[in-house]
Amino acid sequence: MKKIKFPVIIILIIICSSISNISYCQRSSDLGIMLSTNDLNRLILEYRKPFSEEHRFKIGASYGESSNQDPWERIIAVNDSLFTERVTTNSIKAVNLRFGVERQIKASMFSFGADLLIGYRSTTRSRKNSYMLLGNAGSWRNPHPYLNPEGFDPKESQIRRHFIIPGLQWHLSMELPLGSKEQLFLNIVYAAQLGMERHLKDTDIHDPLNEYGDLGSAPTLTLFNAHSRFGIGLKYKLGNKKVKESL
């Protein structure tokens, strides 16, 4: 897939800005829903309430999930007919609450703002053996692992790590009215955020091979987290109070 060049994005924004011959000041509250390019902020809900002609108070929440496998795998054993690796996978779930202020740029469809973020994230890290068995036909295959009566691989280990993530976010937003009533708006956003991951505790520990034995004595982790994302969604205006000015 070809990447869209930055000048093309600028041209599209200029075209979208020129299709409307009305500038507006939104004085009504609205509700919004958005999908973003970041897995851990995939679904975003937001409520905005004006407190002046150009400023709005915002409160919102986001939810996302992500899973990945470590690119490196530890080789356990190798012989003529069996190849054994230790595979590590991570499953992440995240929830964020945000409180902020947004300012409309004069009477245009553009606005910018900043938010205070309070996030929670849980990361489930698991390790298990992966087997490649040489069959009679000379081809390698992955057999089902041996399961004990409880229904899990006896050599599989797991730990769930919990984090709280305070942070800050800034964003640039563009809104395009859909329809003549200007009650529904297409919302396009670019946002960047910086947070600090603070480790709280570990739970759901199953560690038959003592792979997580050193975590209990490890200091509490504090890590910086930063990312940027694009989002697109809809905003629905509650009520119909607005001021129109002909350009």
Question: What do these coordinates show?
Answer:
The protein is mainly beta. It contains one helix and twelve strands. It has one helix at residues 6-18; strands at residues 22-26, 30-36, 43-50, 55-69, 74-78, 82-104, 110-134, 140-141, 157-178, 184-206, 222-237, 242-246. Strands 2-3-4-6-7-9-10-11 form an eight-stranded antiparallel β-barrel. Strand 7 (110-134) and strand 8 form a beta hairpin. It is elongated and about 75 Å long. It starts with 5 loop residues before the first helix and ends with a strand.
Shape: elongated
The count of strands amounts to 12
State the major sheet: 8 strands, antiparallel, barrel
Helical stretch count?
Answer: 1
Mean pLDDT metric: 80
Report the span from N to C terminus.
39 Å
The strand line-up of the biggest sheet is 2-3-4-6-7-9-10-11
Low-confidence stretches: 15-25, 146-151, 242-247
How many domains make up the coordinates? 1
Q: What is the CATH first-level class name?
A: Mainly Beta
Bin the helical content: under 10%
Series of secondary-structure elements, N-terminal to C-terminal: HEEEEEEEEEEEE
Structural class: mainly beta
Can you name the CATH architecture?
Beta Barrel
Measured on Cα atoms, how large is the radius of gyration? 25 Å
Strand fraction equals: over 45%
